[in-house]
Design goal:
Blueprint (H helix, E strand, L loop, with lengths): L3 E7 L4 E5 L3 H4 L6 E3 L5 E2 L1 H8 L5
Parallel strand pairs: 2-4
Antiparallel strand pairs: 1-2, 1-3
Length: 56
């Protein structure tokens, strides 16, 4: 199972991420990545990774 990291989100996004291997999280461009949950909901891909439904 992938290692969990501190929550992060995009300044303009609607979700936060908790896995560094999340494809949506990886696509956040430099300068737009922010630490924390930002009062947003968890990314669907990260939910699936946590549930063991997908490796990344």
């Amino acid at each position: 199972m992938p290692k969990q990291v501190s929550p992060f989100h995009s300044k303009t996004g609607e979700v936060y991420h908790i896995y560094s291997v999340c494809t949506a999280g990886i696509s956040i461009k430099r300068g737009r990545k922010v630490k924390g949950k930002g009062n947003k909901k968890l990314c669907g891909a990260c939910k699936d990774i946590r549930a063991g439904k997908r490796p990344r």
